[in-house]
Design brief:
Elements: E1 2-7, E2 11-17, E3 28-33, E4 43-48, H1 49-62
Antiparallel strand pairs: 1-2, 2-3, 3-4
């Protein structure tokens, strides 16, 4: 099983891929947005690798490359 993580000041991202369970949906991307307010819990979203790939393609099309700003 392959796990990769990336943290910034505001979000935590974790991807689990090649899960030996081989069950549908066992390969996942999780994104957690940290709350700076003690009254509000952190917000998380989890999606399949297929959905994460669709999200990546959408963002690549919708956002300009970094060097063109």
């Amino acid at each position: 099983m392959q796990t990769k993580s990336k943290n910034t000041n505001n979000i935590r991202m974790k991807i689990v891929n090649n899960n030996p369970a081989k069950r549908a949906g066992s390969n996942r991307l999780s994104i957690t947005v940290n709350s700076n307010d003690w009254r509000v819990d952190n917000t998380s979203i989890s999606m399949s690798i297929r959905d994460a790939t669709a999200l990546r393609n959408f963002l690549n099309e919708a956002l300009p490359p970094e060097d063109s700003e």
